[in-house]
Amino acid sequence: MAQLSTSNTPNVEYVYGGIFSVNDDGDKKVRGLTIDVNSTESNDYGLEIIVSNPGYAIHSGESGKIYFNGNVGIGTFSPAYRLEIEGGDVNVTAGSYRAKGLCVAGACVSDRNLKKNIVPLSSSLDKLTQLEPVNFEFIDPKYGSGRQDGLIAQDVEEVFPEWVNDSEEGYKAIKYGLQIQMYLIQALKELKIENDNLKARILALENTL
Description:
alpha+beta; two-stranded parallel sheet
């Protein structure tokens, strides 16, 4: 049991220094906590959790789910985002990446049997050509350092209002997701139709000569 130093506060329901409760289930292996550290460095950690009031570092209230209150860093001690990974690659063996529940990359479920109100895109080329890609720098480096390529949210909102929303800080944000790719595909199809029509007209003119 870990030691805990605390004042005698009768209003506190419970204060635990460290408790492990593991139920043995037949011949199955059960592990409450295993930490194996092999290091000669005095500043290496097997496990360190520092909680500042209010909040919790790790909380598991449901089977298979872990909750973190605050930012989580992998390879960094000072994550600036909910999840920040410093160096290395991220490998997803199955599933997808989602933003507010919408699949934006990976293996996105797209079966026709799961969809309704299906409407083909139209006038994609005209809409996309109204957008103005720009190269810029953020004033505040927390949004990105160095020169960036992208769009201006206010300009996009005039053409695709459904692509723009307000961030938690009150700034406009663009949903860079599959919708842009779908409009690009449709724009290519429209370009091909125009190209095929031009070829047919040229061929018809050549036949009259």
